[in-house]
Fold:
Amino acid sequence: LSERLSGVFDRITGRGALSEKDVDAALREIRVALLEADVALPAVKDFVSKVREKAVGETVIRSVAPGQQVIKIVHDGLVELLGGEGEPERLSLEGEPPVAILMAGLQGSGKTTTTAKIAKRIAEREKKKVLVASLDTRRPAAMEQLAQMAEKAGVPSLPIVAGQTAVEIARRAMSAARLQGFDVVILDTAGRTTLDEEMMGEAAKIASETRPREILLVADALTGQDAVETAKRFNERLKLTGLVLTRMDGDGRGGAALSMRWVTGLPIKFLGTSEKIDGLDAFDAKRLAGRILGRGDIVSLVEKAAAEIDHDKAEALAKKMAKGKFDLNDLRDQLVQLQKMGGLGGIMGLLPGMNKQMKAQAAASGFDDKALKRQEAIILSMTPQERAKPDLLKASRKKRIAAGAGVGVPEVNRLLKMHIQMADMMKRAGKGKGLPGMPGGRM
Ligand code: GDP
Ligand code: MG
Structure:
């Protein structure tokens, strides 16, 4: 246990404020994590430098490694950048009906699918009458595709009339909606595979014709470094009001969302999470921040550590250990603290770079959560004297304790051996400067 524990907590220190060195070391990792998550380079650079400013000099949380604390600061910064923790963004549908929503984006980004998804959502949740219309005159199948998706959504689509331009269809959609008492019209535009002036011009024309309340840029979450340029160009021409990131169900970590938010400052309104009609989620900044960082969930580890570790006990323990004492009561305190943090298994699940094999190894060596509970039960089955003086524990006492804890004698022996090893390590550490290996432990 001692070795593994110290592995988990070996960077625990008790300095007063985060140093530049600590911050920079952690930020190097963050930079890599963000780039791996496909956040565009300029966004990464800008973000990291802002976090650096904020983190250096921040008061250290004693029980947490400086690197982990920086990650927490980074995480909070990401959440803020992504729009904060408040209520999810809503579409603004006020004004005289019919209110238009214009969908823009590159071809294949998911505009048509998202059009139908949003239509369903507005119809169901806002109880509004919604009409969808495809302005995609380039691909013959595109209009039919929207009609089919709309049917799945239970929302009417504008009848297809051949030979009209996109602007003409948009006009027809608005007047049909006005005549038929629709509240909302969602206009699905044609995209191109690359940014080009003709597509932008057409979309701008449709926008000036229909005066949409919302112009949503639909983008594939798997877009990499192009995300910034795409968002910037669309936003310059179209006065976007929000972003929708599709394919969040894919393998990507969603860095494109961050890049696009960073360059446009626009709210992310929805995330597409499947090809199906219901695959649309309200945006959650905290969840996306966690995903972009991709650190297992180191942030909640830091939160747990900060909240759960009992500083007073740690301090008292440190004093005892300085005198070379570490009895079974102290061991129990450690076991309880570990359990509070979700057990060793829980902690490892939160740590990056822990693979299945390593977890299995730890479990096999008896430090899974159940083992922690049994070990605690063993100690609780001892008398106070026994706990304070483990030397008292001879065969008959061990038998009684094993029976009391519902385990076998070998398990009692293993615990005692572990205790001796830990006490040993403590003694050595106590002679040195600090106390590696103990949560919150410091002199
Ligand atoms: P458009 O060219 O922008 O209209 O894009 P489409 O709506 O036609 O979508 C292109 C492809 O992406 C289709 O096969 C969709 O089913 C798929 N798609 C759209 N949104 C999502 C999503 O959120 N998740 C997944 N897995 N696929 C999506
Ligand atoms: Mg389409």
In short: The chain has three domains: 17-59+64-81, 99-283, 309-431. Residues 17-59+64-81 form one domain.
